[in-house]
Amino acid sequence: MHSDALSLLTGIIHQFLLYGDFEEVYAFGSGHINDTFVSRWNQGGIKVRYIHQRINSRIFLRPDQVMDNIHRVTAHIEAKLKTAGITEPSRRTLTVVPAWDGKPWVRDEECGWWRTYLFIENTHAGEFAATAEEAALLGKSVGCFQKQLADLPPPRLYESIPNFHNMETRYHRFYDALGKDVLNRAAEVKNEIQFMEENKDRGLLLIHALREGHIPERICHNDTKMNNILIDNESGEALCLADLDTVMPGTVLSDFGDLIRTVTAGAAEDEQNLSRVDFDLVFFKALLMGYLEEAREFLTHEEKKLLPEAGRSMTQIMALRFLTDYLEGDHYYHILRKTHNLDRCRNQIALMKSMDSKWDKVIRICGEAGI
Ligand code: ADP
Ligand code: GN1
Ligand code: MG
Fold it and tell me: How far apart are CA 11 and CA 243, in angstroms?
């Protein structure tokens, strides 16, 4: 890290309510949105780590509202875990560490917004599931998170990104990018554009169901890709949902869908060798059963009917978002190569095609699960 950046970062970190001897700080994780760092401290002979993040305020226009949501949600879950006598609550939900002035953030001179969490030790987060048991535990963790938040007292959470999972507005933005075609990239992505056109109507099913009141609005995570779920290194249990920036009202189908998208793919979302992208039915079934263990009791009939569609739909929304970002000039997602967003789009389309080739079996599995 450049020495100016390091001293800025060290200065920020020391404004949080942390005790002990500061030892080091380094970049961490592979998230697309925020800048994430870890610091290590010696507290009376014990090494303790913290997560520090600069919230991406280009994307989250009201970081104060994001932190308000996160504070309410984590406090609610923590209280529930404690009341139920669950062990190690601080490993089962994020814990916000306030600044010395009592605020849940620190602002830097360039108007960046920083926050700090306890580091949840002895966990890992993967890009796709390794075993069916893992898939089931991931499904269960998301069902559990949604259940924990079902009785969050009012007021309604802020919408940290309005229309985040609204396929209709995502299509509008795509057409806008296509119309402007600022980098003359449209000609090169004709097949992908055509695929998006052909799948538009089916992709709108979820947002129409929500808007017309066929499925209810509920509090959901909205970013349940696998690498946002911390898995215990020893037990393999999916312990904690991280990355809470997008916790807000929406449909729980987005959460289940994003799990399907990432857990069952057999490859990372930017894998370029598309023959590795293969929708895994065994993982799908495990994920579904794990999720239903928690969610069966609160899902409506209509939500259950849409569960299989949710995976296809979330994969489609990501294909569309990656393609739009590629057309707009790669302003949203961190990229490591020129065609990174296009590679991601092609990968997601390959996953949709793989799902389609096995759709009859998806429907059979859902029937056997009683949904
Ligand atoms: P982004 O919004 O950029 O994706 P995340 O909040 O997801 O950032 O953080 C990046 C990664 O850091 C996550 O994918 C997760 O693996 C890890 N992580 C986040 N919070 C914690 C935490 N409190 N303890 C341990 N690891 C964490
Ligand atoms: C982003 O923040 P991260 O990397 O966990 C994105 C999600 C996408 C995901 C695709 C706020 O998630 O919506 O599904 O990339 N988050 C935001 O990998 O846009
Ligand atoms: Mg993340």
Answer: 24
Residue nearest to atom 23 of ligand 1 (CA): 119
The verdict on pTM exceeding 0.70 is yes
| Under 8 Å between Cβ of 26 and 38 | yes
* 236 and 134 Cβ atoms separated by less than 8 Å: yes
Structure tokens, 226: 């696998």
Domain architecture of the chain: domains with CATH? 2-121 (3.30.200), 132-368 (3.90.1200.10)
Q: By C-alpha distance, which of 244, 249, 255, 248 is closest to 117?
A: 244
pLDDT along the chain (371 residues), means of 10: 86 97 95 94 98 96 98 98 97 98 93 95 92 97 98 98 98 98 98 98 98 98 97 96 98 98 96 98 98 98 97 98 98 96 98 98 97 94
Ligand 2 pocket test: which of 28, 33, 94, 221 has the largest number of ligand atoms within 8 Å of its C-beta? 33
| Structure token digits, residue 233 | 């290194």
30 CA closest ligand 2 atom index: 4
Strands (E), 44-177: 46-55, 96-97, 106-107, 113-118, 123-124
Closest residue by CA, ligand 1 atom 17: 29
For the CA of 243, the nearest atom of ligand 2 = 5
Q: Which ligand is nearest the CA of 259, by number?
A: 2
8 A C-beta contact, residue 29 and residue 87: no
Ligand 1, residues at Cβ distance < 6 Å: 28-29, 31-34, 36, 51, 94, 117, 119-120, 125, 227-228, 230, 242-243
Going from the Cα of 92 to the center of ligand 1, the distance in angstroms, rounded, reads 14
